[in-house]
Amino acid sequence: MPDSYLVKPDGEFLHSILDEGGEDLKKCFQCATCSVVCELSTGRKPFPRKEMIWAQWGLKDKLMADPDVWQCYQCNDCSTQCPRGARPGDVLAALRKQSVQHYAVPQFLSSWVNNTKRFPLMLLVPVVLLAVALGLRGPVEKLLSFGEPHGFYAGFFPHWLIIGFYSFFTGLVTLVAAAGVLRFWQAMKAADESSGTYAPKLGIVSSVINTLKSIFVHDKFGKCTDNASRRLSHLFAFYGFTALFVVTAWAAFDLHVMPFLGIDSFYPFGLLHPIKILANAGCVVLIYGCVKALSDRKNREAESGAGISFDMIFLWLLLIVAVTGLCTEILRFIADPGEHSAGAGGPQYAAFGVYFIHLVFVFGLLVYLPYSKFSHIVYRTTALVYAEHSGRNEVEKT
Q: Which of 142, 276, 284, 331 is deepest in the core (most CB within 10 A)?
């Protein structure tokens, strides 16, 4: 028998939802049209009607432990067909922002990273840290007797320094993100246990495999009707970023592991090298995906949803990383079309300046991941795995 539940409305939480994209929440009259029209709401715990009820009551504890908040892709079929104009899709988007902030450590960083006025100040952090790293470069190279830099930009920011710098900070945020995911999983499990509905249907490994298959083809996005084009922009951004991640990993492997194995490094890659082709293709695809997503947000707000800072900062950050990365490559060939050595001069300084800006925004994208919209890659994946594991999406037999 389910335990009794003491209702403890959180007024501050409710006001946060209203202020961050869910201002139409109070228009909801609980007709359940949203749950009926949603193609993804087929299980024993349909959404988003129950989330709208909980949000109106300010039941933060229930919503922060609810995987269905993350099963919503904000296709906004529910919003466009709501007879009251309550826009459940936008409300759930606001709830996802609250969830990220709830599981972030420290929480204030999430509010700063997702604030359009404070985010520029957050970019000063990598500026200072990168400047300090460059200042320490000389003494460390002298102490450890590093060889000559290999590659055009390595003369400015050597590979050992950039790999060490980003490995350290991404390692820290990986721990932060992992802690948030663990707390989220435990909260979902505890919520089901308290309601007497926790009965795993599928093993973790099988649940992960099924979830990854769904993510790679974006099949849930394909069920959207009013905002079907959103699947295309997300696919472009997803695979563009994935391609660039593979390129970065391979470049590090080629530069540091292959020589250790007695194999000559091919770095820096020529324009016709397969990895360079993948990098350029991935960059163009990522830029297109970001531009299309931003365009849809601006020109099709009724279908795409309100563009809150949580979404827009991430999209612009991703776009700037891609554009500055492409400019960095172009300027490398302009400043140093021949030998890959870092000589002094106007073109070189311009190239180094753009490269530094690129590194700053890469820091903002990767290191601020647990606090930004980018964290949806871990929280949504976790929620989808849990949904598979718990069987909450199974259609009840009658």
A: 331
Residues 26-32 have a mean pLDDT of 91
* 397 phi-psi bin (left φ>0, alpha ψ -120 to 50, beta other): beta
CA 242/CA 288 separation, integer angstroms: 14
114 vs 100: CA distance, rounded Å: 11
The pLDDT value given to residue 46: 86
Compute CA distances 198 → 189, 191, 375, whole Å.
7, 8, 26
The token duo for 340 is: 């890959």
CA distance 132 to 157: 12
DSSP output for 376-389: HHHHHHHHHHHHHH
Which pTM value belongs to this model?
0.90
Taking only the tens place, the pLDDT of each residue in 334-392 is 887 554 444 556 788 899 999 999 999 999 999 999 999 999 999 999 999 999 999 88
Q: Are 42 and 395 in contact (CB under 8 A)?
A: yes
Taking the CA atoms of residue 148, residue 154, residue 156 and residue 160 in that order, the dihedral angle to the nearest 10 degrees is -80
pLDDT in tens, 220-242: 887 877 666 688 899 999 999 99
Please classify residue 186 by burial: count the beta carbons closer than 10 Å to its beta carbon, then call 0-12 exposed, 13-18 middle and 19+ buried: exposed
Structure tokens at 9: 């409305």
Specify the DSSP class assigned to residue 44: S
Using the predicted structure, report yes or no on whether residue 197 has a pLDDT greater than 90: no
- CB burial string 235-246: b at 16+ within 10 A, e below: bbbbbbbebbee
DSSP H/E element including 206: helix 204-217
Prior bond of 347 cis (ω within 30°): no
DSSP 165: H
Residue 305: what pLDDT? Answer: 58
Distances from the Cα of 161 to the Cαs of 242, 336, 361, in angstroms?
24, 22, 17
Tokens coding 214? 């769904």
